[in-house]
Every structure is written in structure tokens, then in C-alpha cells.
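Lab notes, practical 5.
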Amino acid sequence: MSDNLKDILNNSNKDIDNQKLMDYLSQQLSKQDSHELEKMMAEDEFINDAVEGLEQFSSVKKLPLSVEQLNRDLQKQITKKKNRKKKRKLKEQPWVYFTIVLLLILIVICYVILKKRMGNSLPVNKPVASVSVILKLQQPINSYYD
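Output from the prediction step:
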């Protein structure tokens, strides 16, 4: 963001001029201008709140110093937040990516080697007894009961 957007009481307000507000508070406006400003205050709550807040200052002369101090504090807070966001971001560390890829490759290689070795040493599942052997075993038992 640019510094102009962060300034408090900057000249971006289209409805009322900041200098006009300051002149109103120091009672340097003409009656017509002050009447016009009071009419705007009655219509717009934001302008009314702004004038009420500015009236609470002990001295209008100290107001620009206060505004400047607020702007500096605002800049400090924004800078702190930006720095915190930068610290929270994951820093690019190529060695971490390299390590992850290397581990994945090693795992795949180990899997392939183990699969080949285990595939050769395991016996093939053959039926223990064939159907004919089972039938031969059943015949003497059946003949015994007959």
C-alpha cells in the first residue's frame, strides 16, 4: 500500500475538506461556511463523529502533531505485521525437497528388490491333496459301513 492510503485525515475525503474541519474547530470559518458544515454534520454521522472527536483535543494546534504520531504508529504496526507474515511463510529450502525425493526413490528401489527376492523364495500354493486322493480315502470308510 502506498503511504497516502494509510494517512489519517488525508485529503481523500470528498465530502469535506480537512482544513475546513480544522478552521471550524478554531472558529475561523465564516458563518455561512460553518452553517454549511453543521448542516453536513446533521446529515452525515461520520462527519459528526469526526468533528466530535476533534473537539475533544485540548488544543487544535497539537492536532497535526497527534495526526503525525498516529501515522507513525500505524506505519510501525503495519511493518510489524508484514514482517510476521514473512517469517511465517515457508522458506524455500531445496535440500528438503532433495531429501524427500531421495527417500522416495530409495523406498521404491527397496520395494522392487524385496518383491523380486520374496517372489523367488515363496512356494507356489499347490493343493495338498487332489480330489482323487480324497475319493480313495473315502472308499474304505464307506465300504466299512456297508
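Observations recorded by the TA: The mean pLDDT is 75. Residues 94-121 form the longest helix (28 residues).
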